[in-house]
Amino acid sequence: MLNTRVQAAVEGLPERHTAIATAMLRLEEQVAELTAMSRIMADLLNDVLFDDREVEEGYSSIRISAQDMTNLAFAVNNVASRAGKLEAHYYAACSGEVGQ
To answer: What is the mean pLDDT of each run of 10 residues along the chain (100 residues)?
Structure first.
């Protein structure tokens, strides 16, 4: 959902600036989704890295279930994919391209 206060402020800008600002505003949802997914990934990593480990002579031995490994792989790839798409959309927005 676009930030309506910011969107209202954008309306008085010159045309090129309006296009860039509008394009940037459309990135809000992608930023929020990437933030949420990165928090999920951080929670998964925290659970796996610290819940079932043994420390011996300064080294940790970690046991990861197949399900946890699948979840971590999904989360890492999802965050990387979202970040790549957001980067592309950001640079397009800098050029004033409004589409997503």
So the answer is: 56 66 83 96 90 81 89 96 94 71
